[in-house]
Amino acid sequence: MMSNLKAGIGSAYAAARYARAEYRRSIRYQRLIRQRNVAFAAYRNHSPRCLHLGAQNFVLSNWFNTDLEPVTEGVYYVDATQPLPFPDGSFDFVFSEHMIEHIPFVSGLRLLAECRRVLKPSGVVRIATPNLRNILGLIADHHPDIERYLHWAVQTFGLPTQPFPKAPMVINNFFRSWGHQFVYDPETLGEAMAQAGLRDIVQLQPGISSYAQLSMLEHHGQAIGEWTNEFETMVFEGSAP
Question: Which CATH architecture group holds 44-131+184-239?
Fold first, then answer.
């Protein structure tokens, strides 16, 4: 009986700790939501209006920068797996870099539809994300660019080396690390954007766009190296009807 009593007391304490943690979490997110709403009310005077999803700590000047866990001044809370907290037709441009692969495929489809919803007519969304075709090509091709990328990945992430072949180590690390949920190939991302109602969908290189506001936006290369980023990253743009 004493052991049952102790177990019951332990469970009660655990439940109380969980309740306190959830209460603190709720208070924090209420504060973040208030801050975002106040900031967006002021930002609505901007022209053009530009939404940056998954900013982390990289603040784009004159953009409304958002992230799931904002820790940098000028970055505001948005959960990209939920409906975007902005009215229809709020933005001229939407940009996301190396974020959509961190949410499940179904959530990615919903996000693209939400990007379409918050864009003004003829507004443009730009998505930068790893190219599955290039990653899988690591195990099949052996030209110098492949070997260069494999050597970089093995050295950078401390992956097993000889006598093991490098490609399986790099590919497994890519899919299992950094919270990756779904990695797109060009056909899948293009079709997902079309299903979201976007049109004039084009594939581009990082940094390249016919729109001045969308040119030279990608910054992932600053973290992993420009050549490496160009090797693994694809960029798609699509416009709202």
Answer: 3-Layer(aba) Sandwich (3.40)
